Task: structure prediction
Amino acid sequence: MTDQTDALTERERSAERTAESDALQSDVAAMYAVLAECWREPSHRLVTAVEAGELEPVFGDLGSVDLKDLRTEHTRLFIGPAGPPCPPYESVYRDRDDPDELGPVKGPATMAVMRWYQEFGVQPAKDYSDLPDHIATELEFAAYLAEEGFDERLIQFCDEHLNTWTEEFLRLVEEETCEQYYKSLAATTREVLG
Result:
């Protein structure tokens, strides 16, 4: 996601960081970054990481995964063909008139999250084609805030964005998916955001 500029000065960052707090922030940032990558379209790299047990500390034992099966499930859950059962966009959950129906993409929530990115001088990479309020993009931004030591702003971003819509999204994923990978990913994401 991030091509960034140095829009903020060092003194605007959180209070002085110690080696211990740096390590903790790095762990938090890494967790958000791993989750962000896992919510994107499955890749050979992801399957290799699962098969090698690299994600086991995060998700537990996922067993064997098949790239074709994961991609098929990813498409079914998040893309469609006839409208996905679990759209991965904040605006769909927040910008709706009827609580029993999903709202439009690119609504006010999308614009609000874009303002966050602009404030910190980050923008999607030129080759990134998804919407700014995609769960993976929001988690990647949370990783950036954690890594840079913007602890209070990370809490604020999660309160204003991630925590306002992901519970419903994660519940839908757990109800709809037939892949253990996505059940574990939803449960772990809930735990991290909780």
